[in-house]
Amino acid sequence: MAQGIAKTKKLSQPKHKEKITASRKKTFMLTTMVLPGAIWLFLLRYLPMVGIVMAFQDYKIYTKKPSFLNNLIHSKFVGLKNIKFLFAMPDTTWQMVRNTLGYNILFILLGLVISVTFAIMLNEITKKFVAKTYQTLMFFPYFLSWVVASYFVQAFLDPTRGLLVHLMQSWGMQTIDFYNNTKPWPLILTICNVWKNTGYSTVLYLSAITGIDASQYEAASIDGASKWQQIKYVTLPHLKTMIIILFIMNIGKIFCADFGLFFQVPMNSGPLFPVTQVIDTYVYRAMTTTGNYGMTTMAGLLQNLIGFIFIMTANTIVRKVDSDSALF
Amino acid sequence: MARKSKAEKIVVPEKRSYNAVSIPTEIIINIVMILFCALCIVPFIFVIIISFTSEQSIAQIGYSFTPTSYSLDAYRYAFDMGAALWRSYFNSFFVTVVGTVLSVFVCALYSYALFRRDFKYRRFFTFFSFFTMLFGGGLVPTVVVCKQLLGLTDNYAAVIVPMLCNPFNFIVMRTFFQSSVPEELIEAAAIDGSGEYNTLFKIILPISKPGIATIALLNALAYWNEWYIPMLYIRENSYKPLQQLLMEIQRNVDYLAKNASAMGAEASKALTSTPTQSLRMALVVMVVIPIAFAYPFFQRYIIAGLTVGSVKG
Amino acid sequence: MRKKKLLSLALVAVMASSMLAACGGNDSSSTTTTTDNTSTTTDSTSTTDTTDASDASSDDTAAASTGLDISEPVTLKWYLHGSNVTDDSAVMEKVNEYLGEKLNVTLQPIWGTWGDFDEGATLAINGGDDIDIYFTCSWSADEYNQYAKKGAWVRLDDPDNNLIQQYGSDVWAVLPDVVKEGAVIEGSDGVGVYAIPGFKDFGTQNTWDVNVTLLKKYGYTVDDIKNTDYYGFGDIMATVKAGEEAETGETFYPLNVEGAVLERMVTNSIIVNGDSGTTNVLSYYIDPTDVSKNIGSKIENKFGTEEYKKFVEKTREYYNAGYIDPALGNANSANDTLVAAQNAAKYLIGTQSYALGYEVQTSAARGIEVQYVPCTPPYVDKTATQGAMMAISTASKNPERAMAFLNLLNTDPYLMTLLEYGVEGVHYNLNDDGLVVFTDERDNYSPWRNGMGNITLLPPQEGEGVDFFVDTFIPYYTSAKGIPAFGYAFDSTNVETEMAALANVAGQYALALSTGTVDPETALPEFLSALETAGIQTVVDEANAQLDAYFAAN
């Protein structure tokens, strides 16, 4: 600290020139901070983007001198041919777009409400040890892959040996062949999604809450604010930025579905397609038969383009209303 | 400053109890939490039970909470893998520690600069990272760059480098800074003549522990859980992390099952020689347990509310 | 990151799925034989004299590697499939010592496992990695045909640079004609051979897997199965189901089947394009008693035939009677369920693509008497002959040396045995009869036996007959006849969009219908109309145009 004070003294009457130098220096220093990440992003994210042209190509190997670049250079451009398969059947296209969008909107909203609520609840638990225990347990689903989760779901729903099926039998209820019946699946998939992702997003909100200065609560409490009012006027405004940022980022992925959830958990059961078919599973199945890289690249490009438009729109709106919370 | 926050810590419980939620509310909160946590932990218990279930029981009644007979075979088999198993434990551990430290470091630097409103290129670099969340070149070109250009094959760097940066974390971290670091603090530091790096490491980071811990936690989990990247870049057994061993088994089984009707007897034969279902579950248990125990370490910083009063300091 | 995973998943999919066709389904390892394992290259050639030298490229049978310049040392990278190898140092030391002398080559195998192979190999191929030789086949992701078209493989019988003639005439002389014919496809360099096929079980025979022990318990014999067909199993299954359930109190499902295989067995259809259930929409039909007789079949939408309708209605009847486990109708749980029932011997009749000697093996494993009742004699289709091949990459800098290595590998029992079984005294020992007995070390070095090449060069394993290959294996497979459209392979390049849509339609209905889990009354018309929308007719027309062209040319 002493050293700092000495420096301040030296600079106590900065001239105009020095100010510019200081500002340049600051920009330079901050740029060096960005540099490691920026170089990484350039090499591992931007450079491979060359491959996006595959979306418009009939990608072939250049037999004379095969290398990725040579292959790209010598492959034939086919325009938008690779996009056609997504629109081959109007009903199916509508179905998968509806499912992808519908589930994502549901998951985003539900995820938001549940994780923020849980974060606030955890914060209110007086015994920190108990809160920690809850939080640890909530993270467990994150460790289990969807494949493992699907075994678990099957243990309940299996038409012959499932626990739920046994229960229904012993209660004299009509049993349901779950893997053949579309009705329960929107609920099952939603529960699975909440189950897996709540721990993750709760921790983000919780640490944002933890960053709130306790004196603010004190002050509010002294002013006679009830717990609800404290949440409303202190906690939520503090969480606002985090909520908005996560929301915007989720909007960008609204056309991309969690493949494992929709493919593994329903055991890839055909009769369930009307409620489990999403863009990603459709593309996957298409790829299994054609093996055409251009098609997946194209589908991904399209999903992200739409996401990009959504995100830019959302961000522009946010920036107009509250520029601090905007993504950029 | 350190002394002060310690003093605050002692004061906190009193303040809390004075400003705590009512007891009925807290009971309700606890009930909700217990129910949800049960939902979260039961599947894992299920996995543990399967890992101790005998093969006959699985063959007879499938996966069940109440198998007809138990067995330790899966664990015995796993431990028979001997050196390879411990080696991959070490690899996972090493990669997680080094990867987490490096990635948090890079992330803190990048997102701190993004957080600084007076940084000239702030918007550019925000967009520069954000854009990659949406657009990518796809698998083939990425692998080509990593393998052929950067030489990321069969070394620890091949697991660490491809996951070093995550634009999502950059933006989350920036948001943490925004919500917990008052700008006056930076101005004050600048007036004190503190250099940019000094400000970041000596002043900002200490009060951003919850954010740093969160990012560290997420990165540690990501490194520990990752199997896909090692699968692309690691063939040498001595560099394989634990998750890769597990996933290789799983994928072998899936692949054979998928191709069974094409391969006929060949697949059935190969399937009988792949590890059993209970072994797969035993490996899941062995993957999850260490990271679950490491979790409280991060939690200390996330939950305990250590930053109280730091603004004034 | 998540997005990347998605992409990669899609990729896995690509590869992992379109498994075309049965790769013979026959594993020779259960039985055995041997060519005299001291035999030299020429000896082994003579043991397989089913081959004749009529093939143009094998005319030059004189020393294969005569024209080869081996003055420069060369490293060959070799990408394999289905390996379980954790330590190859002892083997590779010997292999490289030997290869160094013979060809001045250092071999670097890449031990692809089952699970990572598709992705690993496909990425390497597309990315132009520096790899010389790849395992390839027609069933995994149709890699052989697909990548030949994309230009990944060197044409080996290129008239301008005939590698087979120059450096591979020995192996070419060893291979049966039908296998060589099966390797001829259309690739980036015209119609020709793009990989060296393995000499393995190349015949296909679908059979009923019968639990004879259970059958006898209820007073039936295996002849009761032989004398009827799928449509006549009902009474037997009813009796056994009732009896078993009364005895154990648990649900018993007598019919333990793979939907796609069952459909083929009942309707006598042959795989045209893929067998994964999602790509499997076309059929070619054969006469079940005389597989090579041309019955004038066209390629058809397999779900649109009367035969299929009859089949699914019967299957639904069986399903409703409780003969089929509902879990067999879910793509992802079907196989686990099937295998579990087999292992526990909790089934009466199943489906099985046959392998020579398989009844001994499965009877022992399941603790019951198992018999396989064939639906047809063994036949050869193109996809079966392309079950395991070695292709030379266009990225290879030394295709000549790679060919010479493949030539040596497929004709030299010492080299083949070393690579397949490991080092004698370390990974295996020979017993008094000269049969192979593996040691514990084998766990660290187990390549996939059918995944390397000519398995008839190998010494037999313990439990296999001393003369297995000569007495059993070779006669069985060489007796297998080619189907009428044997040389034909469907090229879906022009109808990719339709195929992509069809895969999704088939994924929704095919397995469920073929296992009876949905009611054909409503589901079949829905299915057919969805297929129509997705463009099945275009695909059928395209396939038939190609078939006609094939018959016209032959």
What is the CATH architecture annotation of the largest domain in chain A?
Orthogonal Bundle
What's the story with the biggest beta sheet of chain A?
2 strands, antiparallel
- In total, the number of domains of chain A comes to 2
Helix content of chain B: over 70%
Low-confidence stretches of chain B: 1-16, 304-313
Shape designation of chain A: flat
In quaternary terms, these chains amount to heterotrimer
Distance between the termini of chain A: 34 Å
Annotated CATH topology of chain B: MetI-like fold
> What name does CATH use for the topology of the largest domain in chain A?
MetI-like fold
Spatial order of the strands forming the largest sheet of chain A: 1-2
Q: What tags apply to this protein structure?
A:
heterotrimer, B: 313 residues, mainly alpha, MetI-like fold, 0% strand, C: 554 residues, alpha+beta, D-Maltodextrin-Binding Protein, domain 2, four-stranded mixed β-sheet, 13% strand
Can you describe this structure?
The complex is a heterotrimer of chains A (328), B (313) and C (554). With 328 residues, chain A is mostly helical. Chain A folds into two domains: 13-79, no CATH class; 83-325, MetI-like fold. Helices cover 70% and strands 1% of the residues of chain A. In chain A, helix 14 (279-290) packs antiparallel against helix 15. Residues 1-12 of chain A have low confidence and may be disordered. Chain B has one domain (82-303): MetI-like (MetI-like fold, Orthogonal Bundle), CATH 1.10.3720.10. In chain B, helix 4 (73-80) crosses helix 16 (277-303) and helix 12 (209-225) packs antiparallel against helix 16 (277-303). The longest helix of chain B is centred in the first third of the chain and has 33 residues, at 83-115. Chain C is α+β, with helices and mostly antiparallel strands and 554 residues long. Among the domains of chain C are: 41-202 and 384-410 and 443-452 and 472-481, 3-Layer(aba) Sandwich (D-Maltodextrin-Binding Protein, domain 2), CATH 3.40.190.10; 206-379, D-Maltodextrin-Binding Protein, domain 2, CATH 3.40.190. Chain C is built from 22 helices and 20 strands. In chain C, the strands form seven sheets. Chain C has a five-stranded mixed beta sheet. In chain C, helix 12 (259-267) crosses helix 20 (496-514) and helix 20 (496-514) runs antiparallel to helix 21. Chains in contact: A-B, A-C, B-C. At the A-B interface, helix 1, helix 2, helix 4, helix 5 and helix 6 of A face helix 1, helix 2, helix 5, helix 6 and helix 7 of B.
